[in-house]
Amino acid sequence: MIIGGSKTQVIENIKQAAAEGRFNDKVEIDDPDLSAREKTGQVSRYLKNQNSLLYRFLNVCARALVDTGSKVLNWHTRIEGLENLRDLEGGVIVTSNHFNPLDNTAVRITLNRAGYRRLFLVSQDTNLAMKGWIGFIMNHEDIIPIMKSRQYLSGSFEDQIADTLHKGHAILIYPEQEMWFNYRKPRPPKRGAYYYAAKNLVPVVSCFVEVRDLPHEGNEEFQKVRYTMHVLDTIYPDPGKSVRENSMQMMKQDYGQKVKAYEKAYGKKLSYDFREDDIAGWKPRP
User: Fold this and answer.
1) How confident is the model at residue 285, as a pLDDT?
2) What residue ranges in 29-160 does DSSP mark as E strands?
């Protein structure tokens, strides 16, 4: 799943950010660059369009396209720990490591097998400005846009999260925030995903995707890779604790589980000292 052009500068950005402990910073170089006003306009139009019959029709089409594409892209993806989802009912927050624009497809097929027909994605506002087929998906699939506006976050965004969970759907929130292309290691999370789980008293489905190189060339910079989805122990909020207490504890447990999953999968202790094999499939030029 190699999206976009050369990743040389992106990998250099990852290396620098890891060295400086900036694990949630943006490293991609080709994302849309919008002003605050443009971002607000994009999100407002997207939310307004959801009330139209045309959007509802295109949403069904986009979901069918994504579901089919997810099965095709993950035909050789292994899923381990699916039994951890056996007793789930109702809305859930899903967390996973974020290393590819299409890594959500592995989460999608996993949740489908657990009985969830729809997976909503919390996605950055700038993604609504993307073009082509990715832009179509971003503007018509089950997306909950997020932007850096205190008024929006405490109002419409929280309402969308609560309503989606109330309807019994799954919501994928990347606690690492930014995507680091093909980066194998779990990064320290931000608290948002766990705050929304705690506030709505719903469990967190904890996932970690292992990425292994295949002996097949993807392009001149990368080998093809294969995923193994590790479904870890589900994390439940304690009704007797405050939202803050729950969110902090859930975040700590989730990160700890992901670290253990990484160490078991790759057979080594987690260290954030950068190594070339931190980037799955990468073929560094001499």
Assistant:
1) 77
2) 78-80, 92-95, 119-124, 143-146
